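Q: Please design a sequence for this.
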């Protein structure tokens, strides 16, 4: 991509996910009223310019903790959930009042990872968000902290925001944080700033090494989670801009194509269904495959045939997401099988022509058809 056109992905974006962090919205748990107002004004302008915006907002736990008189987000999961229950009401009410000044409505959408791991619930959430967008409403998305546990929570709204990119088919993810972007080295107070990385074509190990930690007591994610979000968004064909959310008119500058923050370029677009399968779906079992099958899946985009399956682990039914691994445990692919675990145990290693003879019926030659399979790069 030529340098003069590198920011076109910002100007051409019609559907945008904006993620704003706790440290941008609050100070010691208290809401920054001016920031809420400016954010509402900027997003309202984007809508008037025929763009659609989903807002993924942190801040509920911090605001609820402040209301409870705590200096931190609570020491236990139940305490954090209690703070979230109180703060979520306050957070959405602040947004409702700010957007009402621009004659805009907001809708609250609370999600958990388990809610999106199920394909039917994933599609239901998509339909809800798409309807809110069609009605000109700003969906305000947050993790449902009041019911989420460590096993099902996204863990931070950076990862949630990238899931939303795939959910709604967004063109651009904007992550508003308290730094200007990704630096070659983490900025340290009192020391000279390192160089800001303006453009990232691919997230390399060197780029990941530049990302360390999080400075806020209330914040969940650090720079590493933002890189993970950018990589996930890229696989959905979306660009990501990581920038300072406290800057004036930052969203307007981004869609104008200004060189602000760090731009992560989009990658080849993976279908929404395959993106869900690779990064959101919960798997129910494992197929251990031989080296020939692994090579075929990775290099030729083949389907997985019974002959390439060595063993079956776990219990799963037809169409339930499973993992394909090598004999040494390396994850090769994920897919939706045409046969259940018990059936695959009976036909593993067989030529396709023997499936009907072994089972008495056939759901097709493939254990996993290539349209229901996604390979995972490492």
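A: Design:
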């Amino acid at each position: 991509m030529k340098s003069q056109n590198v920011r076109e992905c910002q100007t051409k974006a019609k559907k945008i996910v904006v993620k704003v962090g706790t440290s941008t919205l609050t100070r010691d748990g208290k809401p920054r009223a001016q920031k809420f107002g400016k954010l509402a004004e900027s997003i309202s302008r984007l809508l008037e310019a025929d763009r659609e915006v989903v807002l993924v907002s942190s801040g509920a736990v911090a605001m609820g903790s402040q209301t409870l008189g705590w200096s931190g987000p609570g020491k236990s999961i139940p305490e954090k959930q209690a703070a979230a229950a109180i703060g979520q009401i306050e957070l959405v009410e602040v947004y409702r009042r700010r957007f009402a000044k621009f004659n805009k409505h907001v809708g609250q959408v609370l999600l958990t990872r388990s809610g999106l791991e199920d394909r039917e619930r994933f599609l239901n959430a998509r339909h809800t968000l798409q309807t809110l967008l069609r009605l000109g409403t700003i969906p305000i998305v947050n993790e449902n902290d009041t019911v989420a546990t460590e096993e099902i929570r996204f863990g931070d709204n950076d990862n949630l925001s990238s899931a939303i990119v795939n959910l709604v088919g967004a063109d651009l993810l904007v992550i508003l944080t308290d730094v200007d972007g990704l630096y070659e080295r983490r900025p340290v107070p009192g020391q000279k700033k390192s160089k800001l990385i303006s453009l990232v074509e691919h997230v390399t190990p060197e780029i990941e090494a530049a990302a360390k930690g999080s400075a806020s007591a209330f914040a969940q994610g650090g720079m590493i989670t933002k890189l993970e979000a950018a990589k996930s968004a890229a696989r959905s064909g979306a660009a990501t801009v990581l920038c300072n959310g406290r800057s004036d008119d930052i969203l307007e500058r981004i869609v104008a194509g200004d060189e602000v923050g760090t731009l992560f370029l989009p990658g080849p677009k993976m279908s929404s269904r395959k993106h869900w399968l690779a990064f959101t779906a919960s798997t129910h079992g494992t197929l251990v495959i031989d080296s020939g099958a692994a090579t075929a899946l990775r290099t030729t985009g083949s389907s997985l045939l019974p002959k390439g399956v060595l063993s079956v682990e776990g219990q799963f039914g037809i169409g339930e997401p499973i993992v394909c691994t090598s004999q040494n445990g390396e994850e090769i692919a994920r897919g939706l099988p045409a046969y259940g675990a018990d059936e695959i145990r009976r036909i593993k290693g067989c030529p396709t022509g023997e499936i009907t003879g072994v089972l008495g019926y056939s759901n097709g030659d493939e254990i996993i058809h290539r349209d229901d399979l996604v390979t995972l790069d490492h």
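Q: Thanks. Anything notable?
A: The mean pLDDT is 90. The chain is about 40% helix and 20% strand.
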